[in-house]
């Protein structure tokens, strides 16, 4: 059985509230879970009080082999319960093909305009 440490949504419409739970990876997000190990309230103004975790249980489940989701791993890293490796995706910053084409077209128009403005100045100099 593959265990996940993840968020289960609670609360009402437009007022989210999450429970940090241990669940089987096959169970639905808000469905059956094994244990509730913390909460996350994104509506709180105080950032330090948004996340509350039961550190002993988190350590236990991590030692057993439960895998946290990305967001939950961020919470654990901020609480000092585990180290999260920083992500690096250098291809994300590369513009797409359309943007590259537009930039090349814009550069060509600028070069043509520069050449056109320099042509009368060169003819007057001769």
Structural overview:
The protein has 126 residues and is an alpha+beta fold. It folds into two domains: 3-79, S16 Ribosomal Protein, Chain: A (2-Layer Sandwich), CATH 3.30.1320.10; 93-125. It is built from three helices and five strands; from the N terminus they run E-E-E-E-H-E-H-H. The chain has helices at 55-64, 70-79, 97-125, and strands spanning 3-12, 15-24, 35-40, 51-53, 67-68. The chain has a five-stranded mixed β-sheet. Strand 1 (3-12) and strand 2 form a beta hairpin. The radius of gyration is 27 Å and the shape is elongated. It starts with a strand and ends with a helix.
Topology:
Layout: E1 3-12, E2 15-24, E3 35-40, E4 51-53, H1 55-64, E5 67-68, H2 70-79, H3 97-125
Parallel strand pairs: 1-5
Antiparallel strand pairs: 1-2, 2-3, 3-4
Tag the structure with descriptive keywords.
S16 Ribosomal Protein, Chain: A, 2 domains, 39% helix, 126 residues, five-stranded mixed β-sheet, 5 strands, single chain, alpha+beta
């Amino acid at each position: 059985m593959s265990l996940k440490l993840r968020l289960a949504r609670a609360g009402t419409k437009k007022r989210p509230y999450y429970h940090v739970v241990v669940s089987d990876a096959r169970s639905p997000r808000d469905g059956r879970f094994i244990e509730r190990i913390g909460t996350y309230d994104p509506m709180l103004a105080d950032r330090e009080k948004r996340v509350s975790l039961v550190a002993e249980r988190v350590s236990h489940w991590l030692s057993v082999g439960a895998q946290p989701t990305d967001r939950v791993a961020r919470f654990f890293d901020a609480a000092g319960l585990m180290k999260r490796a920083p992500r690096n995706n250098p291809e994300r910053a590369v513009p797409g093909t359309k943007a590259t084409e537009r930039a090349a077209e814009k550069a060509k128009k600028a070069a043509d305009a520069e050449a056109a403005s320099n042509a009368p100045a060169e003819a007057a100099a001769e």
